[in-house]
Amino acid sequence: MLRKNVWIVFTFLVLGCQVADDDANLVPTEENPIVNSEVGTDQDTSDSKKTFDRQEMLTFIVNQIIIPSFNNLEDNLGELKSSFDLFNADLTDENFEELTNQWLNSYKAWQHVEMFNIGKAMEEYYVFKSNIYPVDTVRVKSNIESGAYDLENPNNYSAQGFPTIEYLLFGPDDDPSKGINQLRDNIKYRDYLKTMIESLVSHTKAVKEDWVRTKEEFVLSTENTASSNLNMMVNDFIYYFEKGFIANKFGIPAGVFSPAALPDRVEGYYSKIYSKEIAMEALSSIKNFFNGISVENKDVTGPSLKSYLNFIESGKDHLLSDQINEKLSVVENSINALDQSFVRQMDSDLTLFLKTYDNIQSTVVLLKVDMLQVLNISVDYADADGD
Amino acid sequence: MKKIFLSLMGVLILTMACEKGGELVEIPSDIIENIDEQDIALDPQIKNDPLPPTEYKFTRNGISTVFYSGQTARLKMAGELYLAFSNSSKTEADLLAMFNEGIGFKDDSLNTSGKNIGSKVAASSYASSTVKPQIQAFITRVVNDVFPYYNNDASEGVAGKYTDPGGRTVHIDGKGFEMNQIFTKSLIGALVADQIINGYLWRGKLDAGSNIADNDNLVFSYTSPGASQNNVTQMEHYWDEGFGYLYGEDNPYSPKVSNGVLLAKYLGKGDLPGLDKEIYNAFKLGRAAIVAREYELKDKQAKIIKEGLSKVIGFRAATYLRSSAINIENKLWANVFHALSEGYGLILSLQFTMKEDGKPYFDNTEVNKMLSDLEKGNGFWSRTATELNAMADKIDQVTGLNTTGI
Question: DSSP 3-state assignment of A34?
Fold first, then answer.
């Protein structure tokens, strides 16, 4: 009851003396509350929808970024599979080194597709099956021993994918020969590794083929609704930035969400020296997506979030897209200043690592709050951290 | 009764707003008396806004929708941690468990609350992630550098206790740091201000996701005590949680705050007369605005609260520096250590403030520079009155407050 009463008060308050002269329909009801015309309504995009071609943007992203990224990943995983077959047939140091190189190349290629957790990828839990870390090493070992496991079981998400392959290749401790020896001596380990690689190959193929098959239809869904492909993709991008990029690669290992740092949560934990290289690769995928840089040819650019923002903000002195790109440059320099091993970095100077986290975090605010406000797109996920 | 009262209030306000129209409606005098006269002569910043409700009381179907027990629990935890920082029998593990896990408190309801302070320290999107380890290190420091020497005689570079002639006793480390003060005053910014200013009253949180649409359409996310089903919207509850970080240990139906060891205690000291009332009014009006779906009005009140609370921190940070300067001249060193320790924590807190342009008075880097300046040499033992007054001047310059002559 009180709520209605407060309304009555507010009606007078807000409308003041004009209440008598204005349209009586302005009196709010449960069904038809008075909503301030400048809040929660479509301020800027009603015009821009007509003029900024959202479909063209989606088309560019799908054809020039998403599908080429999947092609790259598929090619790299093919190489990974071949290098495994070679090693499996001839267990030499050289063949092993080639295998680890191909793991790194494909893991870097993966960084360009992780953000597109949409459609088939989402249905198939593709991201979960590809890049959950830390690895559940107990589970991996028991899977290897028993030989009976179901990779579709969510409990096995942390016992497959790139991190698990890394664990099998590099081994659990400081002895670099551990991984290769175990693989040489134990065919069960090689079998599991083979299954891991093949599984990534087949999942990637399925997701890519789905993109190729559905792309024409996909790019038509550009309306500004929570379920439109455009809005979902923008949300996926920000979600990836906030979770896959910042939280997983930096915040969680740095101890931002726990009483102390958790170095064993870094990406690339077992290979030790690639955390930075992998993170930089992920950052480049973020920049490509935001700025509409073609994956096939870096000199080709197309409509993107940047040009969309610039379109809406045309005439403004301080463009949000410039602010975002400036921040991303700060982030890049900040990551570049870190040790190639994030574990070593946290050990020697945790504060520097935390400051990198801060730099990335301040970009989240620009993307999630400022950018979405300009684009008038709603966030489709929320952190339920209230009490 | 309530309904009639409120409706009449509406008429009254309409009447007041329409004075120029010349047509006055006669209002019974008892109704007029119910409206606090001070509300009418509000700060110019808010005088164009509608009047706030008289109390922070919001109900739906007769059941209060306001609750913030988690905030109250954390404020009380801060109070017990403050005492534990003066209990030299506590181990580092004891204090860390209280801080991070929310266990080990005398008040057992805290131990079972499921809440802790650690995860909410400098946890907002605007906070530097370096602050939590910085504050957690105060725990290590009190246990390792103060407790073992608790009743030794302190001197420059030597930890122990120090007593002014006929006056205060402090337990300090070799740099003169009174860790219970430093820790607690740091939480004023890193916990309370950060949670209110950069968290619950931030548009990025209040309006996040579908919060506006849900609030418009009465899509409820929380069940208040006494209700049998969800009856509170996300936005309403976030606002209440922000309210709870300030008023969690005080009477929510009064602007008078004072309880606890954090921000409410210092707002209640009345350094800036009328500010407590202004902030209470803004909390009430902002919450009413959410119910009325007037989001711009809500944001305006949030801004008043953020800038107001920031002033409390800015004012106190500068005044502790100035009072330390006076005590240095009077050679009352225990007073110096105490006030400078308070000042240190409040300076740390400055990075969680917000001034009119939306930025803090000082950012993380600037704050850390001031803190390291205070810690130079033999720490507080090495400070001069000139240095401290200069630092206070610098703070005043940014806050726009004048703390000289305090």
Answer: coil
Residue B162: its H or E element:
strand B160-163
Which distant-in-sequence residues (6+ apart) come within 8 Å of B363 by Cβ? B351
Residue among B321, B293, B285 nearest B399 (CA): B321
Instruction: Return the closest-CA partner of residue B142 out of B189, B82, B100.
Output: B82
Q: Render B254-286 in DSSP notation, one character per residue.
A: SS----SSSHHHHHTTTSSTTHHHHHHHHHHHH
Render each residue's pLDDT in chain B as its tens digit; 406 residues: 333 334 334 433 433 333 333 333 333 333 333 334 444 444 444 456 788 999 999 999 999 999 999 999 999 999 999 999 999 999 999 999 999 999 999 999 999 999 999 999 999 999 999 999 999 999 999 999 999 999 999 999 999 999 999 899 999 999 999 999 999 999 999 999 999 999 999 998 999 888 999 999 999 999 999 999 999 999 999 999 999 999 999 999 999 999 999 999 999 999 999 999 999 999 999 999 999 999 999 999 999 999 999 999 999 999 999 999 999 999 999 999 999 999 999 999 999 999 999 999 999 999 999 999 999 999 999 999 999 999 999 999 999 999 997 6
Amino acid identity of residue A248, one-letter, is N
Rounded to whole angstroms, the Cα distance separating B14 from B289 reads 17
What are φ and ψ of residue A99, in 5° steps?
-65, -45
Q: What's the helix, strand, coil split of chain B in %, to 5?
A: 60, 5, 40
Q: Does A18 touch chain B (CB under 8 A)?
A: no
Nearest-angstrom CA–CA distance, B195 and B112 = 22
Question: Cβ contact (<8 Å) for A365 and B288?
Answer: no
Q: What's the full length of chain A, in residues? A: 387
Cis peptide bond N-terminal to A33, omega within 30: no
A16, A256, A386: residue with CB nearest B238: A386
* Chain A CB within 8 Å of residue B371 CB: no
Whether residue B219 lies within 8 A of chain A, CB to CB, comes out as no
Contacts of A186 (CB under 8 A, 6+ apart): none
Q: Would you call B71 helix, strand, or coil by DSSP?
A: helix
Distances (CA, A) of B177 to B43, B128, B149, B244, B387: 39, 23, 13, 30, 17
Is residue A176 within 8 angstroms of chain B, CB to CB?
no
Q: Which residues contact A85 (CB under 8 A, 6 or more apart)?
A: none
**Which amino acid makes up residue B164?**
D
pTM to 2 decimal places: 0.82
Please report where in the chains the tokens 């080639």 appear, as a residue: A98
